[in-house]
Amino acid sequence: MPAPAFDYFDHPDRAHTWLGGLGRVSTLAIDTEGASFHRFVDRIYLLQLTVEGRHAILDPIPLGPLSPLGALLESPDVEVIFHDADYDLRLLHQDYGWRVQRIFDTRIAAQLLGIKAFGLAALLEQHFGVVLDKKHQRADWSMRPLTDDMLAYAVQDTAWLPELRDRLAERLVATERLAWAREEFARLEGTRWPPEDPATAFLRVKGARDLSRRELARLRELLPWRDAKAKELDRSTFRVLGNDVLLEVAKVPEPTRQTLGAVKGMPRGLFERHAGDLLELLHRADALPESDLPRFPKGPRFTRDPDFDHKVGQLKAVRDQWATKLALDPGVLCSRERLETVARRLPREVAELAEIPELRRWQVELMGADFVKAMAAFAPAPVEDSPYRD
Predict the structure, then answer these.
(1) Dihedral through CA 336, CA 342, CA 344, CA 348, nearest 10?
(2) How many CB atoms lie within 10 A of CB 270?
(3) pLDDT digits (tens, 9 = 90+) for 21-46
(4) In the chain, which residues have pLDDT < 50?
(5) Contact between 4 and 155 (Cβ < 8 Å)
(6) What share of the chain is helix, strand, coil (3-state, %, to 5)?
(7) The pTM is what?
(8) Alpha carbons 280 and 295: distance in angstroms, whole number
């Protein structure tokens, strides 16, 4: 099926005129294209909109603030349709400071309906016979000019969302799960990247916990150096020196030019230019006294519970029975992390479950009584108030 016709805007006056001419709208479908696969700092390089049958692609680089669009996205009177909203919401807040309200996420809706192939491409093919060209999935949207087939691909990310939303919403109503979806959508409001301390970024590298304290000190030196190089080149960090390679460099027993060069995945060009810098960073970490070596901060400590795994297992059995009954993925119905929170709380009444922030109201209403029943066997016996009690 050919891509629908669309308007392309890269001039502020034309874009503001088009947005201003929309008038009062009730729904708006939106998608963003970034370039995290290619650039050091991701940002929005393309905005796709579908509003009441009209399709537009906006080039945000020359367009400026786009306050008319922000007013629509933040209006409580406009339902904003996304597919997999999380990353889009983070970029919209990062670049514009917008807090989108009244969200409908077609990915979440599909998951709550038990649809196993819930990616946008799969849903479009299933519902509309639209087959997306996968060659643009990792396209560099920061390049200019964009090709015609890239734009045709981009517009389809929103063109079908309003009708897809209607079809999924109809099924949510029929299965009495619309309230579930609305609660999930409401939790998306305000999604943004939390502030991070660059000084502790090395602790968040996957695999860092497997390092010794000395190796962790090496990683602390290597990571900001790598990030500075990536920023200088405006490339994604993994295209300069991947985290897996950094971890291997940090673990080299005796750093020399020869041993570093033998690290699997070490980029030849970067190594030839910066082997001396890498050795200097490693030697600096190796010169630290033991008292100055970093360590991971202690996480929350829980009282050792020999029955903990059994408690989680009982809750999991309840969850899995409901998942089978509802034809839902068990992880969508209730994640293991939430089950563990319930096991630690050991609720005696359903009302106690409502006090757990991670649990949704619909999960409590659906499974709460069964969760409490499953935990009843682990409740401590009541202490009798008797004068003869030893």
Answers:
(1) -160
(2) 16
(3) 998 899 999 999 998 888 888 899 99
(4) none
(5) yes
(6) 55, 5, 40
(7) 0.88
(8) 22
